[in-house]
Amino acid sequence: MENNNYREIFIKNNIKTTKQREIVFDILMNSNVPLSAKEIFIKLVKKGNNMSLSTIYRILDVFVSKGLVVKSNISKNNKAVYEVKGMEHKHHLVCDCCGKILVLDNCPLEGYERSLEEKTMFDITSHKLEFFGICPECKIKIEGNV
Ligand SMILES: [Zn+2]
Ligand SMILES: [Zn+2]
Predict the structure, then answer these.
(1) Ligand 2 mean position, distance from CA 90 (Å)
(2) Domain containing 138 — which CATH number?
(3) How far, in Å, is the centroid of ligand 2 from the Cα of 88?
(4) Helix axes 53-65, 37-46, angle to 10 degrees
(5) Can you list the residues of the chain whose pLDDT is less than 70?
(6) Number of folded domains in the chain?
(7) Which ligand is nearest to the CA of 101?
(8) Distance 141 CA to ligand 1 centre (A)
(9) 107 marked ligand binding residue
(10) In the prediction, which pLDDT does 1 show?
């Protein structure tokens, strides 16, 4: 774990460095999918860390309020998930049933974005795109119940 980097990031974002904040941030930095507070909690328990869920929520709130982390409600049950802001550009595929999130390897919109700029004379600075569906495991469950 390379915590010196985190300290610098925290200072830049006006966040006081604490051990617990570093631990939660490390989990987010090492995840390639957005995580809910509960998923962070479970990862910490597996690592033998017994931080409470309410502590994790408090830390996440600080990160979000300082603009370090982005909170979004991309799953159908409106479960909030958190990811580090400014991580590489990503698109997600979300299961409507279990809320599982896959990250797409590449952006399908790069070429489209350029042609849209040409057509509209906009300078496009960003875009958002999420896909929703039913994952293979949930499909098996649903078909099994018929
Ligand atoms: Zn599913
Ligand atoms: Zn994209």
Answers:
(1) 6
(2) 3.30.1490.190
(3) 10
(4) 120
(5) 1-4, 75-77, 87-88, 146
(6) 2
(7) 1
(8) 9
(9) no
(10) 46
